[in-house]
Fold these 2 entries.
Entry 1:
Amino acid sequence: MSEENLQSMSDLVGLCKRRGFIFQSSEVYGGLASCWDYGPLGVELKRNLKDRWWKSMTFRDDVDGIDASILMHPKVWKASGHIDGFSDPLVDCKNCKERYREDNIDTTKACPKCGAKGSFTESRDFNLMFKTQMGPVEDTSSTVYLRPETAQGIFVNFLNIQSTMRRKLPFGIAQIGKAFRNEITPGNFIFRTREFEQMEMQYFVKPGSQMKFMEEWKETRWKWHLGNGLREKNLKWEPHGEKNLAHYADAATDIEYKFPMGWGEMEGIHSRTDFDLKKHQEHSGKNLLYTDQADGNKKYLPYVIETSVGCDRSLLAILCDAYRLENKGEKDERVVMKFHPSLAPIKVAILPLVKKGGLAELAATIYRDLQVDYKSEYDVSGSIGKRYRRQDEIGTPFCVTIDFDSLEDQSVTIRDRDSMEQTRVSISKLKDFLKEKFK
Ligand code: GAP
C-alpha cells in the first residue's frame, strides 16, 4: 500500500468544503476574505479539540477556568501596550494601491502585484485592533476594541479568582474564546484569520521560580499536541532569541507545525514576568499584590507563564496531519482522515448493507442505542463501498455494518478506518468493544 501526506492546502480546503467541515463565510455573497464558517463536522471536531484542551488544563488541582467578556474597558488595552504598540509596519504600492507588511517584501524591488518599481510609500504603523463603538453616541469616548487576545481578560481577573477560589501560588487561569486582529496579510485557509479562537492559560508563580514552571509547561504542552495525534516529526520548538523576544518576556518559545506551506507557529509559551499585572496595577490604581503567607506575608506581583494556542491553527494542523492519500491512481485509491479517535467528529457509522429485509430497522435500533454515548451517523444510501469512502474522508474510526447474517446471529461487522480490518462482534458486546477503543 502506498501513502501520501497532504501536498497542498487546496486539497484540504476542497475536502473541508465537500464534506461539511469548513465553508467560506458569507459564500452566497462571494465570501468575506479570511473569514470561515465551521460546518456540522468542523464544529464537532472543534468542540472535541476544545474539550481536550479544557480537560487537560482545568481537570487538575491548580487551574481554574473563566469566560471573560470580549469587550473590555479601553484602558485595558492602554495598559497592556496594545493601543501604542500592537501594530505592523505597512507600505502601499502607489501604483496599484496594494498594501503589504513591510517585513514581508523587499521594498527596493518591484511591486509583486503590478511590477512597478520604486512605487512604495514610506512605512507606517498600522494598529491591528478592531475598533467599535459602545452605546448610541459615536465619539472617541465611546470607542471600545474587540479583544486581540484572551489573555487580558485573565490578568484583570487575577485577584477575583485568587480570592474567590482561595488560591495560593502557583495556580493558573484558563480560558477559551474569540480574538480579533485586523491582520494585513491573512491567509493559508484558517492559519491566519481576522477572527479566531485562542485557548490560553496564565500560570501565576513566585518570582524566581518561572523557569522551572516554564520547563514543566513546555513538556505538558508538547505532550498535548502529540496526544491530538500529531506526528512528532511534524513538530518543532522555535525558541525566541533576544532579538525577537517581546518586551514583556524574559523567555519564550513557540511550538511550530510543518504545514504544507512550511513551518508555522501553532502555540507560544511565554514567561511574561510581572509585566501585565504591573501595568494593570499602574493604570487602574488598584492594588494587585499577592500576599505570600508561606513566605512571611511578603507582598509581591506574581510572575506569569503563559501557554497560548490558536484553536483554529491547532485544528488546521490536525486536519493536515490526519490527511492521507492511499494507493494514488489505483482502483482502491482512498483519502482517509486519520483523526485521533477522541477528536473524530463522527465516532461510529451504522451502515445496513441494504434497506430491505429488516436490515434498515435493526440498524436504526443499533444507531439510536449508540447515539446516546457516541456521535453516530446512520447511512443507508449508495453502495457500501461508497459509504465506506465517505466515512474514511470524514475520519470516522469505526463503521458498523449490518448484513443478513446479523438477523440470524445478532452480530455485526466492525470495520476499522485505518487498517480496514473487519471484526465480527455480537450486538450485545458492541458498546463494550467501542468503550475499549475510545478509552
Ligand atoms: N497572549 C499571547 C498571544 O496572543 P500570539 O503569539 O500573538 O500570543 C497566540 O498568539 C496564538 O494564537 C498563536 O500561536 C496562534 O496559534 C494564534 N493566532 C494568533 N494570531 C492568529 C490569527 N490571525 N489567526 C489564527 N490564529 C492566530
Entry 2:
Amino acid sequence: MPNDCLFCNISKGQTPTEFLFENDTLVVFKDINPHAPVHLLIVPKKHIRGINDLTDDDHSILSEMIMVARDMAAEVGVSQSGYKLLFNVEKGGGQVIFHLHLHLIGGWKK
Ligand code: AMP
Ligand code: ZN
C-alpha cells in the first residue's frame, strides 16, 4: 500500500475526519466537496486500488460496503426519496483517489 494514500490515512484515523460510521471493515465520512445535499463515502480499511483490482478475497468487503451504504441512506433519511451508489473506475471514469470508495449521493429537492 502506498504510505501516502489519503484514504488509508483517513480510515486509520490518522487525519482529523469525522466518521458517521465505523466498524472493523470500513468507515463512512462526508465527501469534502459534496455534489448533492447528501454525499457520503464508504471506504474499506483495506487498501484496494479500485474496482479493477478486486480479488476473490474481497467479496465480503464489497457486499458489506453496499449493505452499509443502504443502512446509511436510511440513517440520513434518503432511503425513500432515492439516492445513487457510484464507483468511479480509473481516470477516464472520474477516479481521482486510488483507494476503493463508494459514493452515496442523494437528498435532492423533490
Ligand atoms: P473519486 O473521484 O471517485 O476518486 O472521488 C474522490 C472523492 O474524494 C471526491 O469526491 C473528493 O471530493 C473526495 N475527497 C478528497 N479528499 C477528501 C477528504 N480529505 N475528505 C473527504 N473527502 C475527500
Ligand atoms: Zn489506501
